[in-house]
Amino acid sequence: MRLYALHKRQFVAVFVLFFICLFITILIGIAGPSVIIQSSYYKSEDQQKQISGPYKLEASNLDKFHQRLWLTMKTTTDSNGKKKTIYIYINGAPNVLSRCE
Question: Rounded distance, CA 46 to CA 99, Å?
Answer without folding.
Answer: 28
